[in-house]
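@channel sequence for tomorrow's demo:
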Amino acid sequence: MPGILTTVEAVTVLGAPAPECRECEGSGVTTYLHGPREHSRKCDACHGAGYRLACPTCTDGTNPATGDTCATCDGFAILT
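structure tokens (generated this afternoon):
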């Protein structure tokens, strides 16, 4: 069974909300054309949250010192 992705909220870590995601303009959904039809899916950049802030601790979801999963962003490399 696939796990449910839960991103870390910026308010919890930094005490301030994350800015609106530039990719989906805060909607949490991106729209793309597939032939003549328009399709929507959850935004890959913010994982559907609508808000996105780069993790202040890591760049790729891993702790730079140890190589383990980043404790600040829980491995997502972003805060929502």
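heads up for whoever presents: The first helix runs from residue 10 to 14.
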